[in-house]
Design a protein that fits this description.
The chain is mainly beta and about 425 residues long. Helix content is about 5%, strand content about 20%.
Amino acid sequence: MVRPSQLRLGLPALVLLLAPLGCPTEAAEDGPLFTSGEEVNDDTTTTEESTSDTTTDTDQGGGSCGDGTVDDGEECDLGGDNDDAGVCTTACTLAACGDGKVYAGFEECDDGNQSNTDDCINTCAAATCGDGFVQEGVEVCDDGNDVESDECTSSCEASTCGDGVIQGSEQCDDGDGDDSDECPGSCMLAFCGDGYIQAGVEVCDDGNMNDDDGCQPVFCVESFCGDGKVWAGMEECDDGNMSDMDACPQCMVAFCGDGFIDMGTEECDDANMVEDDFCQNDCVANGYSDDFETNNLMKLPWALAGSGNWSTTNNMPHAGTYNARSGVITHNQVSSMSLNNIAIPANGTVNFWYRVSSESNYDYLRFYIDNVQQGQWSGVVPWTMGSYNVTAGNHTLRWEYSKDGSVNSNEDAVFIDDVFIGG
């Protein structure tokens, strides 16, 4: 289709364009519609006389725009049919895009300029989103397409994280503004270390991969004493276990006087600097102890009684290689091990570790001080520390395994290790 900007017609073409319109009889009698040096008639015959008359009229008449005659300086003249919305304007110029006049049926608009940033672009079409031109004050962008995944959406708005459409470097975009799901406000798939706590997956997320702060990387779990990572400013050490009997009890570097016995280094640790109690200031025991590492019951004056004697074993010791095991007994029988009438020079504690593997609620390990029960345990109990106060003087300490009248369960035995009697 020929656009209005290309519609610049010469005189002969204009005559042919208007010929179908016909001419009234009066107009034919008064003179021709167009004169430009030659008269054009129905039979295309030109006479010398008529040519001479027309030239004389044009030269002498000095026609004006709108008289129906195309004069010098005019591109067209349809007389009373000149129209700013038609092919020949009231200024006797042929309609053209950019002339400031809207040519009906051919132009949507015509603002008389070549700007593509207002509401009428230079092809005389109304500005629309998707035409490739950014309309000032109306559009943020216009890339001339309807693709949602590029930098300019089909509504001519700049693509942003959170608009619900995946664009550019985005891995996801759910448009919900929720930072706790699998697609947080970064529009990157959620991962440990992104700084967003993913609900139901992470407990914490501090936005880094450091393992010396309060949030551990990889799984985004909170740091704790015993996780094997030293939390800067909070822990002195962390050996990855919960033992208080090594060089890092409760994530503090062990020292004599901290109240924790560093096995292999200290015999005792009563958390004080009193020299004349059961534990001297250099953590050397001034009391009684037996870790059963002699593989016998000879270190302390152990007394054995009952239907089966206690003995040492290497079966799952608490520490070292050996521990003490109850005797082999059956229903309604007892196996006991005791320290009888032992002299305790000052008030202190009886500490020991015990493990139980018996019929729950029926076969018990019981501990007595002077025949007064201090504690009892049955079922399956992993190594646990028992600690009981004892006053200065002579006392009898007894560990006893007793069975009821039926049923043997688990290992049907109890175990003792690392006995210490002191302050």
